[in-house]
């Protein structure tokens, strides 16, 4: 048992503010560092002012603004992960006000690979440790829980496609008679390797993002718990070690009064404050040593984290603080909270248990061998016949023994003479069978062979044979890579199939999509920069989000999406990441070549060494000694081989790291893609709702038409850009950014086309035209025909049947737009006339 207080760390978020209102004092000797906040006295408060000016808090370590993610991982998380790998439970939780860097610390930033947070780094570390520890068998499972307004949601559920938080399965809290907490409905999914684990993290993060509602933005108001469940055991041993690592991103800790919110936000804020308040209550109760009752049950979060707080767990807290003036109060209260947390003592025990199944098997075996031993010792020989079950078991044992290529392999049938005799009979039978077969198949002596048989064997020089051997070796390597790729793919397909069967439908497209080799297609897709293609991702985890891409986009919507994407604030960053990804692929390719070359060098040197040693052996039998030069040559080859091995190892490790970076970049790109698509969908939905509301309020009126048209014409501006675009808004039909005259004219034509599509009762002729021309061409035609407003509506156009088109087309009242609409109708009619003539 390890008794330990909760370790507390502090991290200061980078700020642009120059005035330092804090200082950090390190004391390396006792691994402690203080952070001091200075609040200068405000003269406005008068001369007699007893307000404190400095606040000092002690932490295990305080990370200043410039400290990087790898440092934070090394100091905060590495030790905890090591303990979890040894069988202890661990928890790391981030606490601080909104925007102080909790998510950045726990999950990581989205801009750079180096910004990966504690979760991806912990996963990498765990799988690297598995590689080192070949003596034990490890299994890893992942779960991801979100707690929002006292309800738990499963972020990893593969059966549901979330578009809002309520779509995710609700997780219920259950308590067994021993007061252990169980989470019903929470998926605990296996992750065989780092890639699979990161995919799950990505799936959960994407669900978290997609399920955000305007009321629950940017995970600010929910708590998230990412749990890594580890099981390890030595082969054949009945002892299993099970441990859990909780990585917790808590909701923002600011007080309600400060958040200045109302309505739903106030309800949420109250819930968060309540759950953080209960967390505080638990912490206060734990720090008062005499308290009998700890109020864990008051909230879902404290119930889930029960073990992490005052229980069987090694827990670490990271307090995130923002040091600009306006956030100082909150930062001080975060640090105060941390000081109370530091008083809690946990008692972590090694989570070792015996696997009952393995235990029974072991005991049965032991009983059997004791029985056998007893019968040998007492001389009691059993004379009854072996049962069929015993014979089957013996046959199995004997076959396994014969198939084992290991010469040292032993056969244990126990002391029962019947079994021993049966084994002799079995082995003799096999030996006779084999000699009969060998006689039939034994090759004819050289003299009996037909002349052409030996003639077909080509005579090859040793160098040629060596070259062929190398090629053979290379092909073998390639085949084994392909076979492992195929195996992986087959597994993916089977998983996708079984998942789709579990969902109750066979989605062939999903299966075929996921059966593509991952790296190749994903590279193409990302480099192509096509965000909206329905087949652009083959990964079965991300396929779940393909629904966003699969939305059949109308030409207008597609066009709006293009503009939305173009103007989205993160698009430049996405382009940068794609460029980076491209560069990384090129680097990975050349690293791959380096690895191959180094491997070939090693093989070549191995061949040379073998030949030299054979030569030396022959020489020493003939001359009784080896020559000095040969020894020198051997040494040189060995040295070269060491160098080639070092080169290989270095290139291989670099390639491995590069692969991890490429995977991460793919995830970041995916995240951005889903985010942009999600924001666009939300925007589009709002436009549609506004439009239908407006037309319901004032049907058919000119103002109604005008505002409807306006709604559809409002440029697709992402929420972030809204504010600035509102400032520079001069004309409600102007798309974002300055437009060239041609663009402006195109845009007017496009708007006219959209209005026509929406307002014209019969759009059959439009559809007819659409079969011949693309939407943009129509727009261009319409724009070309656009004339300056020629005055009044009495300029009504007449259709070929003599009917006025204007009678059918509701105009907007906007002179310029109406001129565009009329121009478009004219264009359409002239086209139709031409068509009729031909
Ligand atoms: N140490 C840091 N280095 C660089 N950027 C940071 C750091 N900490 C935070 N940020 C940035 O500050 C912003 C807010 O951080 P983050 O989302 O992690 O805050 P949070 O505390 O999780 O907020 P919330 O409570 O809303 O979830 C993000 O854009 C993040 O990238």
TrEMBL record:
Chain intervals with Polar residues compositional bias: 509-524, 701-711, 791-804
Keyword Ion transport carried by entry: no
Cellular localization per UniProt: Cytoplasm, Cytoskeleton
Binding positions (ATP): 96-103
Keywords assigned by UniProt, alphabetized: ATP-binding, Coiled coil, Cytoplasm, Cytoskeleton, Microtubule, Motor protein, Nucleotide-binding
An example Gene Ontology molecular-function term: ATP binding
An annotated GO cellular component: microtubule
Span list, region Disordered: 437-462, 498-542, 687-812
InterPro entries recorded: KIF6/9_C, Kinesin-like_fam, Kinesin_motor_CS, Kinesin_motor_dom, Kinesin_motor_dom_sf, P-loop_NTPase
Kinesin motor domain ranges (all copies): 5-344
Alphabetical list of SMART domains matching this protein: KISc
Main location (coarse class): cytoplasm
Annotated Pfam families: KIF9 (PF23735), Kinesin (PF00225)
Biological process according to GO: microtubule-based movement
Keyword DNA damage: no
Gene3D superfamilies documented for this protein: Kinesin motor domain (3.40.850.10)
Comp. bias regions, Basic and acidic residues: 441-451, 498-508, 719-732, 755-781
Coiled-coil ranges per UniProt: 588-661
Family indicated by similarity: Belongs to the TRAFAC class myosin-kinesin ATPase superfamily. Kinesin family.
Protein name: Kinesin-like protein
Organism: Phallusia mammillata
């Amino acid at each position: 048992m390890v008794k330990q207080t909760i370790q507390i760390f502090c991290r200061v978020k980078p700020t642009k503010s120059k005035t330092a209102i804090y200082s950090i004092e390190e004391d390396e000797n006792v691994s402690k560092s203080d952070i001091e906040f200075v609040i200068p006295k405000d003269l406005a408060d008068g001369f007699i002012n007893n307000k404190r000016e400095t606040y000092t808090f002690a932490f295990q370590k305080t990370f200043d603004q410039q400290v990087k993610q790898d440092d934070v991982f090394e100091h905060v998380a590495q030790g905890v992960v090591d303990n979890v790998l040894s069988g202890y439970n661990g928890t790391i939780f981030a606490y601080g006000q909104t925007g102080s860097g909790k998510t950045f610390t726990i999950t990581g930033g989205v801009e750079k690979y180096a910004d990966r947070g504690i979760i991806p780094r912990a996963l990498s570390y765990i799988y690297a440790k598995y590689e080192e520890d070949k003596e034990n068998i490890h299994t890893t499972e992942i779960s991801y829980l979100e707690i929002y307004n006292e309800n738990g949601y499963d972020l990893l559920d593969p059966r549901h496609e979330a578009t809002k938080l309520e779509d995710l399965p609700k997780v219920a809290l259950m308590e067994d008679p021993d007061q252990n907490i169980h989470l019903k409905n929470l998926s605990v999914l296996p992750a065989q390797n780092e890639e699979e684990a990161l995919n799950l993290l990505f799936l959960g993060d994407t669900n978290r993002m997609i399920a955000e509602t305007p009321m629950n933005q940017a995970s600010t108001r929910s708590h998230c718990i990412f749990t890594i469940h580890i099981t390890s055991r030595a082969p054949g041993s009945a002892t299993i070690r099970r441990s859990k690592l909780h990585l917790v991103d808590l909701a923002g800790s600011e007080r309600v009064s400060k958040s200045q919110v109302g309505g739903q936000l106030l309800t949420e804020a109250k819930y968060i404050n309540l759950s953080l308040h209960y967390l505080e209550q638990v912490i206060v109760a734990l720090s008062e040593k005499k308290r009998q009752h700890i109020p864990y049950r008051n909230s879902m979060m404290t119930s889930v984290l029960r073990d992490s707080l005052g229980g069987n767990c090694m827990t670490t807290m990271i307090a995130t603080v923002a040091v600009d003036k306006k956030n100082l109060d909150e930062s001080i209260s975060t640090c105060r909270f941390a000081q109370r947390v530091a008083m809690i003592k946990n008692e972590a025990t090694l989570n070792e248990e015996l696997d009952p199944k393995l235990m029974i098997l072991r005991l049965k075996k032991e009983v059997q061998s004791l029985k056998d031993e007893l019968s040998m010792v007492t001389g009691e020989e059993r004379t009854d016949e072996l049962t069929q079950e015993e014979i089957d078991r013996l046959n199995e044992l004997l076959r396994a023994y014969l198939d084992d290529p290991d010469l040292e392999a032993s056969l244990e049938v126990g002391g029962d003479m019947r079994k021993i005799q049966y084994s002799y009979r079995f082995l003799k039978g096999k030996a006779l069978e084999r000699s009969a077969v060998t006689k039939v198949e034994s090759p004819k002596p050289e003299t009996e062979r037909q002349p052409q048989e030996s003639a077909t064997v080509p005579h090859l020089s040793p160098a040629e044979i060596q070259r062929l051997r190398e090629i053979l070796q290379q092909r073998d390597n390639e085949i084994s890579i392909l076979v492992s790729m195929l195996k992986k793919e087959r597994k993916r397909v089977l998983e996708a199939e079984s998942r789709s069967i579990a969902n109750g439908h066979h989605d062939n497209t999903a299966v075929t999509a996921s059966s593509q080799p991952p790296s190749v297609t994903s590279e193409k897709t990302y480099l192509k920069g096509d965000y909206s293609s329905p087949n652009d991702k083959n990964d079965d985890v991300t396929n779940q989000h393909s629904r966003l891409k699969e939305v059949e986009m109308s030409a207008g919507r597609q066009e709006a999406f293009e503009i939305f994407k173009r103007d989205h604030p993160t698009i430049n960053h996405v382009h940068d990441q794609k460029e980076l990804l491209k560069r990384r692929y090129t680097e990975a390719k050349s690293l791959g070549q380096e690895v191959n070359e180094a491997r070939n060098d090693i093989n070549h040197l191995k061949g040379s060494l073998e030949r030299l040693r054979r030569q030396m052996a022959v020489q020493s039998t003939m001359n009784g000694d080896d020559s000095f030069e040969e020894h020198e040559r051997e040494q040189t080859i060995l040295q070269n081989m060491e160098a080639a091995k070092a080169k290989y190892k270095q290139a291989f490790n670099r390639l491995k790291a590069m692969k991890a970076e490429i995977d991460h970049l793919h995830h970041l790109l995916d995240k951005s893609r889903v985010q942009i698509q999600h924001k666009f969908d939300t925007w589009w939905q709002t436009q549609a709702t506004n439009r239908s509301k407006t037309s319901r309020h004032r049907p058919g009126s000119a103002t109604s038409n005008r505002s409807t048209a306006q709604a559809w014409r409002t440029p697709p501006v992402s929420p972030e850009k809204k504010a600035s675009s509102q400032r520079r808004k001069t004309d409600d039909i102007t798309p974002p950014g300055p437009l060239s005259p041609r663009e402006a004219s195109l845009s007017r034509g496009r708007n006219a086309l959209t209005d026509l599509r929406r307002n014209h009762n019969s759009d059959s002729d439009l559809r007819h035209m659409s079969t011949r021309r693309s939407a943009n061409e129509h727009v261009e035609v319409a724009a070309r025909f656009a004339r300056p407003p020629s005055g009044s509506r009495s300029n009504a156009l007449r259709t070929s049947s003599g009917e006025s088109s204007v009678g059918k087309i509701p105009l907007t009242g906007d002179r310029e737009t109406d001129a565009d609409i009329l121009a478009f109708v004219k264009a359409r009619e002239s086209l139709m006339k031409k068509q009729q003539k031909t």
